[in-house]
Amino acid sequence: MLDILIYPVSGVMKLWHLLLHNVFGWDDSLAWFLSLFGLVITIRAIIAPFTWQMYRNSRILAHMRPERAALIAEYDGKYDEKSIRELQQRQRDLNKKHGVNPLAGCVPALVQTPVVIGLYMALLRMARPEGGLENPVYQPVGFLTADEVQSFLAGRVNNVPLPAYVSMPAEQLEFLGTTRSEVLDFVLPLFIAAAIFTAINMAMSMYRSIQTNDYSSGVSTRMLKIMMVLSVISPIFPLSLGLTGPFPTAIALYWVSNNLWTLLQTAIMMFLIQRKYPLTDEFKTFHSQQRADYRETQRDKRSFRWNRTKNRILMLLTPWNAAKLHAENVEAKTARVNKINAEKAAKKEIVEKRRETQRQMNKDAIERIKKRRAEIKAKKKELNDAPSDDES
């Protein structure tokens, strides 16, 4: 099923290779090398408008957050049909007023992820033909013919074959006319550069997320924490995967060019966003209050855990007070759990009542549609059964 993803990637590479080799007359290896950069330019240029829309929507949604929070607070605890319809309509009006589309942020990921998968599959099939490199049986890969696959396998950059990779067996490297040290000397700086670009990209994304993070959303806050961890771990992947996995030189070149494009694009778009849509004073005040409330909640959690741990330590040091300290821990935990459960139960009750109202609204809408269809059908039948002028 994923084979279909190979076609757009191979088609773009083929067009760039034909342009550079057949039109401009450049060397075949150089044409294949530059076609990888052409692939990056083509794909990223196509999704650049969607990426800008994502940045813009993200900033506008941040600006809307104080208004949206006030709107939700106004209807907090209301679950009747009139209130639900009013809230939905006012939310739609708010989106329309600011000209925001909540789904626009999904487009870049939906476009780029299949491209990355298709690229890896295409390059891996080209670099590892059926029968092995010693007795290759060249097969078409997407829009690339068997002759073009053979031409790609013969391509070299700095005397390093495009299909070669560091962990490739020595006999295959010898067949390609290179050695592991030559491949390592060429790709290691590329993987290091890819790791550096990745780290900078993650740092900029994290900075942008910290500026506008929604601390009232547990999902958003957890995602920010995950991003902080990934910003440390993600630069390791280009190095570890590139040096230990079957990642051909061609993929190393793609990683560097793609991450460099991302770095420049992110820097430019962040600058433009800050110029065109600077954070408002209203949002800064609202965001600061949200962050303060979140930090206060976290302090309460840490205080509760520390008191419980302290009592456990004292139970070991003063066994004669163990019963009293244990009772304090149980009492504190019970009070905390009851408070949390009461808050959750109150919220759940409102949510369930709203869902029930929404389900009834949906049923009423379906009944109205059925009734309307029945009326239309009856009118059509009445017209069909009416005698014509000739019969009358």
Question: What does this molecule look like?
Answer:
This protein has helices at about 5-25, 30-75, 80-100, 105-125, 145-155, 170-175, 180-210, 220-235, 235-245, 250-275, 280-315, 320-385, and strands at about 155, 160. It is mainly α and about 400 residues long. It has two domains: about 1-280, no CATH class; about 290-380. Helix 1 packs across helix 4 (about 105-125) and helix 2 (about 30-75) crosses helix 3 (about 80-100). The chain is extended and about 75 Å long. The relative contact order is 0.09. The mean pLDDT is about 85.
Supply the key terms.
single chain; 392 residues; mainly alpha; two-stranded antiparallel ribbon; 12 helices; 2 strands; 78% helix
Provide the spatial order of strands within the biggest beta sheet. Answer: 1-2
Got a strand count? 2
What is the helix tally?
12
Classify the secondary structure makeup into a structural class: mainly alpha
Strand portion, in percent? under 5%
Approximate helicity band:
over 70%
What would you report as the Rg, rounded to the nearest angstrom?
A: 31 Å
Largest sheet: 2 strands, antiparallel
Overall 3D form: extended
Please tell me the total number of domains.
2
Q: What order do the helices and strands follow?
A: HHHHHEEHHHHHHH
Instruction: Quote the average pLDDT.
Output: 84
> Can you tell me the residue ranges where pLDDT is under 50 for at least 5 consecutive residues?
none
Q: What is the terminal separation in angstroms? A: 63 Å
